[in-house]
Design brief:
Chain lengths: ~210, ~210
DNA sequence: CAAAACTATACGACCGGTCGTGCTTATTTA
DNA sequence: TAAATAAGCACGACCGGTCGTATAGTTTTG
């Protein structure tokens, strides 16, 4: 039953297709990505994709899930293993900033472009994106609340809003400014998140050293 | 020479087409908008559109310009007529927040969706968008600098970054949270911009009254 | 040798774009 | 004032191309 080599081949092709789909969808949009281009990139035939997903929409949903997996591996994962409280929050932000510099700024952000692409288009894809962002917001809010215990956040702070800001500001500012001045994007993302962290933690001794 | 009735008819049709194009492009994307759907919405034939614009790309560029005009009329205009300094900045923000509640939240934001749609797609449309955002950033930075003279902004503040944040945060936070919780979008946009303004102006007596 | 994975081919629908024609309307002419 | 002219505008039909999708056949693999 293992049938390891047999099933492994199909799973490998499926996985490679999803990885390529994330990259291509970031360039041309999740809906703008044609199956022909995806098949050409993979070096396979277009119709073969229908053996793995029954429709393009099914492939789009799988692409969103794959992007979530990549995001969690590269961003959330390192942050979760950092120390608790403010330092943990900062470790997460630092990982995200480096991720922006390495992936978002050169090639665009899959979630940002897809989010805005489907914002006014109800349907399964938009629903899936809503779930993803809701989970992400909950996770961010939890991280912020943990940091609050150590840093004495001002009483009138809206914690869910703060979590949203941390997320939206980093991506939006980085991508927006990329159109105007690519070099400024990294500084903006880093500075913006750092400012947010300072507001969150007035005691500078709690922050990592060597930050401008 | 007046030729009023002759030219006015064509100009009216052209103007109506651009208004509809902005609305439709906000829904399905600037590139996802088909000429057939635009023609159907207008109740005219598709080929008639080519009498006004020689190609779809020309119509897309005209659509961007039209959206800029609308934005300036509804947002920049009221703000420019407000008192100078912090109050003027707040008047601009207040107009933008109301605009979010009335237009962006129900139907999406043309600039946000189009910006991310074309972020990784070089070409004339992206270049036009870059010009628009560069002008917008310059305008915002000028407004912030005028407010600084009255409010004594902290010395280490990055003014261009602040201008970017004010813009990106409002749109991104509003649209992002719309997917998750429509009711929270207005509060988020208002609270986020208000927080920014408070950081900009530590003296509460300079701020408008009745703000929570 | 099955069975799974993949390819080749064809289809209907829709895309942006072109062309030739008729209608509307302002200007010119008598 | 009334007929004639001409220009702008809009229309329907149609083109080549590409889209997502279905079906039948071929190659690969344990």
């Amino acid at each position: 039953m293992t049938v390891d080599g047999r099933l492994a081949r199909g799973d490998r092709a499926r996985s490679a297709a999803l990885d390529a789909a994330v990259v291509l969808a970031t360039e041309v949009g999740l809906d703008g990505l044609s199956l022909a281009r995806l098949a050409d990139t993979l070096g396979v035939s277009k119709s073969g994709l229908f053996a793995h997903w029954r429709s393009k929409e099914a492939l789009q949903l799988a692409t969103v899930d794959r992007a979530v997996e990549q995001w969690q591996e590269r961003i959330v994962g390192p942050g979760l293993h950092a120390p608790a409280g403010v330092r943990r929050l900062w470790a997460l932000h630092q990982a995200r900033i480096d991720f922006y510099a390495a992936h978002v700024l050169p090639g665009g952000c899959f979630f940002a472009s897809t989010d805005f692409e489907y914002n006014a288009r109800p349907g399964p894809v938009r629903d899936r994106l809503a779930e993803v962002f809701a989970r992400w917001a909950t996770f961010l809010e939890r991280l912020v609340r943990e940091a609050v215990d150590a840093a004495e956040l001002p009483a009138d702070t809206d914690v869910p809003l703060l979590a949203y800001e941390i997320d939206a500001l980093g991506i939006a500012a980085a991508m927006r400014s990329r159109l105007v001045d690519p070099d400024a994007a990294y500084r903006h993302a880093r500075q913006g998140l750092l400012n947010r962290l300072r507001a969150l933690c007035p005691d500078p001794t709690l922050l990592p050293e060597g930050l401008s």
